[in-house]
Amino acid sequence: MPPVVPFYNADGSYNYNNPFEYAYLREGSKTANPISDLKNSTAETINTVVLGNFYAKYSPIDGLTAKINLGSNISHTTQNYFSPSYTALGLEPDGIGGIGNKRVEILLSEFTLSYAKKIKDIHSFDALGGFTYQDTKMNLLTTMSAGFTNEDLGVDNLQDGKPYGSTPILSGATRSKLYSLLGRINYSLLDRYHLTTNFRSDYSTRFAKNHKWGIFPSLGLSWNINDETFLRDAKTLNNLKLRLSAGSVGNQEIGDYEYLQLLEAVYYGGNVAYRVGNSGNENLKWETTTQYNIGVDAGFLNSRISLTADAYYKKTSDLLLSIPPKLGEENNQLVNVGNVVNKGVELTVNAIAVDRPGFQWSLTGNIARNHNEITKLNDNGDIIDGVEILRVGESLGSFYGLVFEGVVQTGEDVSKLPTSPAYTTLQPGDPKFKDAHNDNHIDKNDRVVLGSRQPDFTYGFSSTLNYRNFDLFVLLQGSQGNQVYNLLRRYLESPNDAYNASDVLLDSWTQTNPSTTVPRITNVPLSSELDSRYIEDASYLRLKTLTVGYTLAKLPFASKNIPFKLRFFGTAQNLFTLTGYKGYDPEIAKGIDLGAYPVARTFTIGASITF
């Protein structure tokens, strides 16, 4: 509600008459009241989880062990909500409420046989083989009604309303099974040369008939170079290890029955009708990621300084992704869209700066650089999903839109500027966009890649300091080069009467204020496409954790025979963030910011006792 409209009437009741309210929050003379929403709308989620585990093992001979492990994870979630008629959600349907119940059962069985053998101090060998079985079942039931004659009982009186929506009653059940054969062999020679091989074959019911099996082998080698005779007497270098590995893993984390075309029942015109609920894909198969890695671990000056460095090449084949529907279709479809390559390096350095009685100080720094690139799309064409594009040569999470080139000024020759469907005749104050297609017309064909949510590199730094009874821990983390689509900013800088507006609009173009960055205010949208104004650099450095503590090691009531320590500490998290990003929080998971709640700044005070 705007500040000129009171939340309450003179008699203290809620004011439901806001003459400035946008149409979708208005029903006749009624409008929603945000304070009433907070007070009267209810939502509750209750989640009950029961975990169980049983295992038994038996060793018939030395080194041979048979093991069985049985586990279960049963969860039951109940959700209910109710919004009376004078709330934003309940305004149009004259009150709305619903209840949902979901039960998930996961049963896991593992059967393994392992053997270990050591021959003197030269050979060390162990092997494992086994079978696992996972059964996952889900049951769902929801109901929704609206238009109540009595709202006092809320969700306890849903039968007072009428069925609401296309699926006022929804019930369903799914089931998936995963069968796995696995094997592993470890071999060590002189505790210096190490070999690890793994083999896994998985059968998943989530994939189509001819694609249920996946085979995923791996091989790892390592060499403790510091144990070689030519390095045993090294004074500076006390640890050096070389690691090589190659292997593949599979991904089957998709919904059940995605490969089937399914119908769903809906209410239409008071009758039950059927529509396609899932498009299906009979070619759906495992997503496979194959990775090659080379790494080095090193320690210097009796491990006062140590580092770990890795370089990797990771190729994901048959990437599973939900793509927008094709012409004539209604639903997204899950497909194996193509291949994606990630390659990069990671470096971690640890240093003990001070190590003496009463004073220890250690530092850790890390940096990682990853290059993400789509190398193949199975349909050999771009896939545009909203404001993002999948294109060979680009990265996942690439933003796709128009390039903003300023604002038309008074006296500018508009005949030389490209036209647009939003305004066939340009005038001063209108935005200008790059004619990337070179046809003197601005439309979808002029969209280009504007950036990506993939960072150039990420980094972190921590410091642990102990001085006498005091301790201090600091953790910083950062990201550089990632970009975010600030969708909230776009909404707030677009003149409308649906929600609040940014003070940036005070600098909009006028004859007396010829702005080159903020177009004129108009009730006609000047562009419906994403443009480069709202793709922002979201690089940041954040103080993630700061902990200060003090330990009392000697207490008058403590026993001399039992070590007793009492530590008091205070921890602050997310104290500050250095960033040029204009939104609330640059750390946006999927790169599109619609006003997501920022990470909370928290303060904790506590005490711990050890004895």
Defining traits:
611 residues; single chain; 34 strands; four-stranded antiparallel β-sheet; 2 helices; 19-stranded antiparallel β-sheet
Task: List strands and helices in order, with pairings.
Layout: E1 26-27, E2 30-31, H1 34-40, E3 42-58, E4 64-83, E5 96-119, E6 123-146, E7 162-163, E8 169-189, E9 193-204, E10 213-224, E11 237-251, E12 262-268, E13 271-278, E14 287-300, E15 305-317, E16 320-323, E17 333-336, E18 338-356, E19 359-377, E20 383-385, E21 388-390, E22 398-401, E23 404-407, E24 431-433, E25 448-452, E26 457-467, E27 470-480, E28 483-486, H2 487-492, E29 535-537, E30 540-552, E31 565-573, E32 577-579, E33 592-593, E34 602-610
Parallel strand pairs: 28-33
Antiparallel strand pairs: 1-2, 3-4, 4-5, 5-6, 6-7, 6-8, 8-9, 9-10, 10-11, 11-14, 12-13, 14-15, 15-18, 16-17, 18-19, 19-26, 20-21, 21-22, 22-25, 23-24, 26-27, 27-30, 28-29, 30-31, 30-32, 31-34
